[in-house]
Amino acid sequence: ILDDRQFDIELIVPSSDVPWVKSGSPFAFYIDELKAAFQAEVVQVGARIDPVSQTIRVFGAFKEIPPHMLAGMSGSARFTGREIPASKPFDPRIKHEAVPTAKR
Question: Who is most buried in 7, 29, 30, 88, counting CB within 10 A?
Fold first, then answer.
């Protein structure tokens, strides 16, 4: 059964940001399709750094589920004034997006 009431946020973060991204860290997640930001927090930091892209996966959860939220919507995260590109390997020349996914 797919539970559309709980959404995860998957971010791909540059490995250089690992020291300040911790479980419980708050962030704002801007959803492109809804044109609004929602409060979230880190629930898990990946266990390994990708050796090619020098990135790490970070998983977050919304503090409250945004209205009209659907799995697959994209956006970007902001941690204490820093914009964190996500969902694709990090390339500083490209603005990346994160994709919330429904928990199964």
Answer: 29
3-state secondary structure of 72: coil
All residues at 6 or more sequence positions from 102 whose CB lies less than 8 Å from its CB, including other chains: 2, 3, 4, 6, 7, 8, 71
CATH number at residue 9: 2.40.30.170
The one-letter amino acid at 5? R
* Across 42-46, 49-53, 99-103, least confident range: 99-103
One-letter amino acid of 104: R
Q: What is the pLDDT of residues 2-11, one digit of tens each?
A: 356 678 899 9
* SS3 of residue 18 by DSSP: helix
The structural domain count of the chain equals 1
Tokens of 90: 């990090």
* pTM exceeds cut of 0.85: no
